[in-house]
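Justification of resources, computational component.

The compute hours requested in this renewal are based largely on the per-chain cost of generating structure records like the one below. Each record pairs the submitted sequence with a full structure-token output. That output is archived, and it is also reused by downstream analysis tasks.
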Amino acid sequence: MAKTRITAAVTFGFMMIGAAAAVHAAPAPAPATTQAVDGQAVLANIRALLAPSGAAQLPMTFPNERLLDQPDSPSLTAAIDPKVMRPAAGGAGGAGGGAGPAVMVRSLATPRVIAPYRFAVPAAPMRGKKIRISGWLKAEGLQNWAGLFATVMGPDGRVDALDTMCDHAIYGSAPWKEYSSVVQVLEDSEAIQIGVGLTGKGTVWADGFQIALADDTEPCTDDRNWHAFIVGPKPGVIAHDEKVSRNGHPTTRFTVPPMVQRYGYFDSADRNIEPYLGKRIRMTAWLKCENVTGPSGLQMHVNGPGFRKIADDNMRGKRPLRGTTDWQKYETIADVPAQTQSIYSGLELIGAGTIWIDDVKLEVVGR
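The structure output for this chain reads:
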């Protein structure tokens, strides 16, 4: 089946939209395998992780108290909730229930982007491996959305992988369900962060955080895939649109419904950025839009250490998409400083509406 065409002038980390949508379609969770936590075994596993070398014993299940490693803030708190325990499958007497009281994470304010509550484990014993990070979550009264938060960190604040569950997130109130993220640990990664992320007020309970080895055939689910990140109480829609074609092939549709929110992104992260360091790059794409209410279009974020934005370009102030327009080719240009660690490129949609995108390219155009 034909798919939206995404190409690059040099080696680039874009995935086909159809494949990315499949990765983030929230597949059915694996059967529960969490059992009662053996305190001595947990301590042994933690000691193994803290060792400078050697392999960790996987899978590794962490006690819920580990999430309390992060101190509270005035707007984000966590505590063990003695009134909430994850029930066993099938009710009382079933298998696979929680090991004890769940940890409750509560957001008391709306963060600018996302507020994570997390703990970290050293990455050294898992370097060079693909791992699955999982946890059981339930939610109540979410203003926007929440999800499992998984990050792999490298030296100098480098983000090696980030998965916030943003395009298969939890909205409103939801019962217990197991969620997972598959990420690659690099040869020099330093830490793995596990926890919960919230984009607005609300409460999430968590239980049974675990790290296990992933099969080599499993696709990674981090933000190198095309994904939608929307701050709001409703999800965006990403679709392979066979009814809207360009040059004889289907295109990709990104829709943000009307709601109270600030922005929506549909983009991907490229961390293989050596070909671009110290150079000027240009992203081009063909766009068509319908009923777009705010200044929107192509955007690039160039990030340095600690995920800090050090350069960017977007169409908002130059040639914004608004209303309804037919297919046109657009571009955005940014310089890539030597300290760059990642480049996010794609669409920015302010307000509500639909944008179709096709034939995305990223190329070096100068030094």
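The domain at 39-85+99-213 is CATH 2.60.120.200 (Jelly Rolls). The longest helix spans residues 39-50.
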